[in-house]
Amino acid sequence: MRKTVAIVFAGGCVEEMSVLTFRRPKSAVVFGGAYRMIDFALTNLSNTPVIQNVGILTQYRPSSLVDHIGSGLAWDFVGACRGIHILPPYIGHVKSEWYRGTADALYQNLDFLDIYKPDDVLIISGDHAYMMDYEPLLHFHIEHNADVTMAFTPVKKNPSRFGIAELNTQGKIMSYMEKPEHPRTNFASMTVYVFKRDVLVQELKAHASIVDKPKSFHIYDDILPSIIERRKAYGWVHHGTWEYSRTLDEYYKAHMDMLGNSPGIKITDWNIRTNDMARRLAPPAPARHYPGSKVIDSIICGGCKVEGHVEQSILSPDVHVKKGAVIKNSIIWENVIVEEGAICDRVISDKRTVIGKNTHVGYGDDIPPNNEQPGSLTCGVTVLGMDVHVPDNTVIGRNCIIYPRAAEKELGTNPVPSGTTVQTELD
User: Fold this and answer.
1) What is the pairing mode between strands 173-178 and 389-390?
2) How many CA atoms lie within 13 A of 125 on its CB side?
3) Using an 8 Å Cβ cutoff, are 41 and 31 in contact?
4) Torsion (CA) 84, 87, 88, 92 in degrees, nearest 10
5) Domains and CATH numbers, the chain
6) How many whole angstroms separate alpha carbon 181 and alpha carbon 234?
7) Contact at 8 Å (CB) between 347 and 361?
8) Amino acid 96: pLDDT
9) How far is it, in rounded angstroms, from Cα 86 to Cα 65?
10) Cis peptide bond upstream of 415, omega within 30
11) Which residues, in sequence order, are bridge partners of residue 360?
């Protein structure tokens, strides 16, 4: 029986996500109220019995991700022959540098493959939301004796944002191009690959020997074109929801798609596994709706206290919506306090934010794109970073980005005009 190990790319900082990734990789970003982005990849892996060992490549501000993964118990990756292994950059007698791209990260961890000696290596991204059974992909790879098999999914909008492939009727990759200006198909790469281990190792060593030290090298730019040109490369097509959510607009839309009578993303049906005990002594208590409160078409996680009005919104654990406060069309992360009389309309709030009394966050009809992220934030949402304290009676417009720890000193301009970015000193 062939043996497969999995490697998860989980260490990237995505600039388009702005303040949401200032202190965490995108794989640790909250998604669907109760989950992190990496939960989807780990749940898929835990539902694939042939995968016994998983390596997680992390680099950028990994603390929250490492805390969340813990021992791997939440995904049943614990045992004598089963486990999750964090693979950060390290300093050794020979190697002493940060990962210089996805391929370099793999190259620096060839010893992980030497330990487990798999026949095949499943490589996936840890920052996409989707449900997939990897076993049919692995069977397809074996049946076609492929050197690499890539997973693709048809996308409806803007395929030029992705790596695009042309496949013949047998699934052989006839052409592949990263972000083509004029894509010839809509088969987008899901950043899910199966490699024969020997082929992957040969290609990594060959390219590492010719790459200049300051230069990065990547799976999609260097390794895949070489294999597709000279070896047996196949594509396997996945039909189902796949959320890329690279921009703030995409992230917001994905969450709004979870609501309504016919949600496009049925997050509550996916049975996602997560570690809800990270930094907790006990799971959050059930959500509490107080007399006079009103909740319409929303997802409310455990530990929330709702005294006010919540509509078409997603609240992570331990959010407190006080009496007379209104939250509409918003995504509110953990431990946020919304004080009496406050209004949040189309708001994404990071953890531990305090939204003061009688404030109005998300105000006005004039919505120019955000001045710092004009390609990422255009839909009228205002984004509050971690530990922001919005002073009482403050008005903040739309498409605003408020940096972490902003308070009265930084938010003294009242109202804060739409499209504005309010910066603070970052550590």
Assistant:
1) unpaired
2) 22
3) no
4) 140
5) 4-248 (3.90.550.10), 285-427 (2.160.10.10)
6) 23
7) yes
8) 47
9) 10
10) yes
11) 343, 395
Q: Look up the pTM and report it.
A: 0.94
**Which residue has tokens 């498409």?**
399
**SS3 category, 21:** helix
| Per-run averaged pLDDT (10 residues), the chain, 427 residues | 92 90 94 96 96 92 91 91 87 59 87 95 96 96 97 92 94 92 93 96 85 66 87 95 94 97 92 87 90 98 98 98 98 98 98 97 92 97 98 97 96 92 87
Q: Of 190, 276, 269, whose CA–CA distance to 236 is shortest? A: 190
Tokens of 193: 């690959």
Distances (CA, A) of 248 to 49, 379, 399: 35, 9, 10
In this structure, the dihedral spanned by the alpha carbons of residues 105, 109, 110 and 113, taken in order and rounded to 10 degrees, is -120
Q: What is the pLDDT of residue 102?
A: 86
Distance of alpha carbon 94 from alpha carbon 148, whole angstroms: 30
Contact residues for 255 (Cβ-Cβ < 8 A; gap 6+): 31, 32, 314, 331
DSSP state of 416: B
Would you state the pLDDT for residue 376? 97
* The one-letter amino acid at 299: I
Q: Collapsing DSSP states into helix, strand and coil, what is residue 253?
A: helix
For 372-395, give the DSSP string: S-TTT--SS-EEE-TT-EEPTT-E
The alpha-carbon radius of gyration of the chain (Å, integer) is: 23
Question: Residue type for 45, please?
Answer: L
Contact of 123 with 107, CB cutoff 8 Å: no
Q: Which pLDDT belongs to residue 249?
A: 97
- Cα separation, 370 vs 398, in Å, equals 8
> What per-residue confidence (pLDDT) applies to 211?
57
Burial class of residue 405 (count of CB atoms within 10 Å of its CB; 0-12, 13-18, 19+): middle
**From its phi and psi, is residue 318 left (phi > 0), alpha (psi between -120 and 50) or beta?**
left
Task: Return contacts of 404-410, CB within 8 angstroms, 24+ apart.
Answer: 404/19, 404/22, 404/23, 404/350
Least Cα distance to 33 among 356, 259, 339, 296 occurs for 259
Residue-wise burial string across 210-244, b where 16 or more C-beta atoms lie within 10 A, e elsewhere:
ebeeeebbbbbebbbeebbeeebbbbbebeebbbb
